[in-house]
Amino acid sequence: MDKKFTTPKGFGEILDHTFQLTKNRFKDLFMILLIFMGPVYLLQAILQLSSGTSFFREVGSGGVWFEQILSSFEETGTFDSSSLGADIGLIVIGLVSAILAPVAEAAILFTINHVRKNEVYTVSSVIKQAFSRFWPMIGSSILFFLITVGVIIIPLGIVGVVGGVVATKVNMVLGILLGVVLFLGFALGIGLLLTRWSFYFGSVVLDKDSPGLGRSWRLSRKRTWALMGLYIVFYFIISSISFGVQMTFGIVLGNSVLLTLSSNLVTLVTTMIFSVGYGVMYLDLKTRHDADDLKEMLDDYKTL
Predict the structure, then answer these.
(1) What pLDDT does 143 receive?
(2) How far is Cα 15 from Cα 143, in angstroms, rounded to an integer?
(3) Assuming Cys at both sites, which of 62, 75, 110, 214 could form a disulfide with 68, CB separation 3.0 to 4.6 Å?
(4) How many CA atoms lie within 13 A of 82 on its CB side?
(5) What are the percentages of helix, strand and coil residues in the chain, rounded to 5?
(6) 108-117, 139-148, 207-216, 254-263 — which is least confidently predicted?
């Protein structure tokens, strides 16, 4: 057993362990994501080329080069084509990505678990393990998606109705302020709820507990704020990297196929970071939970 996984970690230790694992296992993790998402990104590039997008540099109308670059995003977009084929292709890519992405993440979770146990593995072996949990993953992910939609839509409806009634019946400014306060409160509550349920995926993959929502709720007990904080930090890291690449390469390449390919490669890296971080967070929760269970067993034994 890897000693780094045997003790509970603090906020900074989880981040540090995440980047160490990403660095040390970069080749295997990147290969997993490339196997699953590489063909999807290639299909996306082919569809862009078939819709008339330039491979190296896409520019639009305008007087100076900066205006031409900006107009290329407005005129072409990622798939700027009136053809039905391009639209269908975009839908197919989205559906395929939604199916393959969870399998890739599951393979990464199995990889991290093998590292935790100091077990030998291959890329092909963890992919096979991931596919063995395919249907439980898909079913649980659909359930989590539906719950997420419900948790978000209902509070938004309440905010809209209450804020609108107060604004029209009492005072416009008061209605707006009340709507903002309610929105922020609901947003915080939704974030905490989804954080507590979000570790269903690790439960389904590693512990074979479907749909895993109950186990996720138990594991994340007393750690919700720290976990949500980690999610926020990972979001800002990933967003900063993606934004920096988009801005840097976009200035030179415009909205070209090469820019899309470059952005997709960066997406593989950021997805890898988040997946490893998720795995470290989940295994840390398991370590804490197992330790608490052992402590309770010892306490019960002492009272006998």
Answers:
(1) 94
(2) 29
(3) 62
(4) 1
(5) 80, 0, 15
(6) 254-263
Q: What is the DSSP string of 47-87?
A: HHHHTT--SS-B--S-SSHHHHHHHHHHHT-TT----HHHH
What is the rounded distance in angstroms from the CA atom of residue 31 to the CA atom of residue 300? 47
Tell me if residue 237 falls in helix, strand or coil: helix
| pLDDT tens per residue, range 230-273 | 999 999 999 999 888 878 777 776 667 777 888 889 999 999 99
Beta pairing partners, 58: 254
Report the predicted TM-score, pTM, of the whole model to 2 decimal places: 0.83
Burial 198-215 (b: 16+ CB within 10 A, else e): bbbbbbbbbeebbbbbeb
Task: Look at residue 173 and give its three-state secondary structure.
Answer: helix
- Nearest Cα neighbor of 279 from 111, 140, 64, 138 is 111
Hey, which bits of the chain come out as E strands? Answer: none
Length of the chain: 304
Our separate counts of H helices and E strands in the chain read: 11, 0
Contact 213, 197 (CB under 8 A): yes
Residue 62 reports pLDDT greater than 60: no
3-state SS assignment for residue 226: helix
Asked if 271 contacts 33 with a C-beta cutoff of 8 angstroms, the reply is yes
The mean of the pLDDT values for the chain is: 82
Task: Categorise residue 211: left if φ over 0, alpha if ψ from -120 to 50, beta otherwise.
Answer: alpha
Biggest alpha carbon distance in the chain? Answer: 85
Query: Over 80: is that where the pLDDT of 54 sits?
Result: no
- Matching residue, tokens 């900063």: 240
